[in-house]
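Lecture 7 notes: from sequence to structure.
We start with the chain below.
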Amino acid sequence: MAAVLRNNPPDVSRPTFVRRLLEETIKQYQRDSSLQNIIMTNAEDRDRIFSHLFSRALREVREGSEGT
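Predicted structure tokens for the same chain:
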């Protein structure tokens, strides 16, 4: 995932990131029903959470690649 974020502009890498994040979120919420309710019943909250996580991942990847 880091390579996708590092080597592509945000409009290209975001759909891949969101798809992978949703896959991992589904695995997690199978263990936690409160997370399931937030992610699956409120699209606005889901988008806000995913946007925040995407921005954070992008920042971490780009900051990490500056030192190499």
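Points to note: The helical segments are 2-7, 10-29, 33-41, 43-66. The chain has one domain: 2-66.
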